[in-house]
Specification:
This protein has 392 residues and is mostly helical. The chain has helices spanning 3-17, 21-33, 39-45, 57-62, 67-80, 96-102, 111-119, 125-140, 150-153, 234-252, 266-269, 273-281, 288-299, 312-317, 327-348, 360-363, 372-391, and strands spanning 159-163, 166-169, 171-173, 186-188, 217-220, 230-233. The chain has 17 helices and six strands. The strands form two sheets. Strands 2-1-5-6 form a four-stranded antiparallel beta sheet. It has a two-stranded parallel sheet with strand order 3-4. It starts with a helix and ends with a helix.
């Protein structure tokens, strides 16, 4: 998904879920920041680099694809953009190496979606934004995996847009001099590389930005699906994503006692269904203007465009001891929590594609020093709970 959905549509979903205008702005800022919180950005802040939630193209071009490098890439992309659906999926007649990648294929309503939403419970708006980004991407990025893999993520000539009563073959090209053209079905994609672990085979790179467009319906023949036709209906999926975000944020606000998978706030969205579906199905590359106008009508407030450096001054100027209490400080902690949770789930499923994970409650802290912050915070939270119970 793009800024139109992660920023403006997420604002609309948050407001419909019951958050105030100000809270909704902070939530959608966090959701969009996930696509921009790179190591390059964190270096400018002198912030923990392990909190990176994305990698810029130049960073990826320089990224090593040895075992350690691939684990680093997978931790980022599987945790925030291609959340695995079933870490224990079975497939006959395949190697453990292939099965590990197969189990990282993204899809909606997997167990990790529930874990992601529950991780944001009682947290600040930035953490809610991270959860909404991850949840939404499970709908747009389904059937692709957040680890480099030609066999999982490749596309070929059999890739068709489904139009009214007919199919039209998609033409993928590698020259970025001209934008995607939905009128003629021409889209930019990464260059074919037969190296299984090439960066060109990460996520939906072989299909370019096409999966990020809400209007498109398409089918193709992925190798992981034994070359059977897979149909992707983005208009339906994006509406499901929007209504699931509303429901998830209603849960986070305390309107529901628990978060249930495959549940949606249909009733909340119903008065606006025609307008929302009209925005989703309109054929253009960027729906930001329509989502922004819809959000402004909902709240009666002005929606400021996304500004990456909105909170950087607050973070940089804060004393070292106070940085964790700033918006970006809390976002960084939430990002570390999400990455740690997903990495641990992958590792405990006996899949090492995202690296190693140690239960520091049992074995003490071992690992990347940035994550020490999570242990320290947990100790503080437990101490506060003990003090509160003693006061009672």
């Amino acid at each position: 998904m793009q800024e139109d959905f992660h920023y403006y549509a997420t604002y609309c979903a948050a407001y419909l879920a019951g958050y105030s205008h100000e809270e909704s702005m902070d939530i959608c800022y966090g959701a969009q920041l996930v696509d921009l919180c790179s190591r390059t950005f964190l270096k400018k802040l002198r912030a923990p680099l392990s909190a990176a939630t994305t990698q810029l193209q130049l960073e990826l071009m320089d990224a090593p694809t040895d075992r350690v490098g691939l684990q680093d890439i997978t931790r980022i992309w599987a945790s925030f953009h291609f959340l695995p659906y079933d870490l224990y999926a079975e497939k006959k007649h395949c190697s453990k190496r292939y099965l590990d990648k197969y189990r990282l294929i993204c899809n909606s309503n997997g167990a990790l979606v529930k874990d992601t939403v529950m991780l944001a419970k009682d947290r600040d708006p930035g953490a809610v934004g991270i959860a909404m980004h991850v949840l939404a991407d499970t709908w747009a990025h389904k059937y692709f995996a957040g680890t480099p893999s030609l066999v999982i993520n490749n596309t070929n000539y059999y890739f068709f847009e489904l139009l009214a009563g007919r199919g039209r073959q998609i033409k993928f090209r590698h020259n970025a001099s001209a934008p995607d053209d939905p009128d003629i079905g021409s889209y930019i994609s990464t260059i074919y590389q037969n190296n299984e672990n090439s960066i060109m085979n990460l996520g939906h790179g072989r299909a370019g930005h096409l999966p990020d467009y809400s209007y498109i319906r398409y089918m193709y023949l992925p190798a992981w699906g034994d070359y059977s036709e897979v149909v992707k209906d983005n208009p339906s999926d994006y509406y499901h994503a929007f209504c699931q975000m509303i429901y998830a944020m209603q849960y986070l606000r305390g309107e529901h006692d628990e978060f249930e998978l495959d549940r949606y706030a249909w009733d909340t969205a119903e008065p606006y269904k025609v307008e929302i579906q009209g925005i989703i199905e309109k054929r253009r590359l960027d729906a930001s203007g329509d989502w922004r106008a819809f959000g402004q009508r909902l709240s009666g407030k002005k929606l400021e465009p996304f500004e990456l450096n909105k909170y950087t001054g607050e973070y940089i100027k804060a004393d070292a001891a106070q940085r964790d209490d700033t918006y970006l400080g809390r976002f960084i902690i939430a990002a570390l929590r999400q990455k740690s949770m997903v990495t641990n789930k992958i590792y405990t499923s006996k899949n090492k594609l995202a690296g190693f994970s140690v239960d520091y409650n049992k074995r003490g802290f071992k690992g990347i020093k940035d994550f020490r912050k999570l242990l320290d915070i947990r100790i503080e939270e437990v101490s506060s709970d003990v003090d509160a119970s003693e006061d009672i």
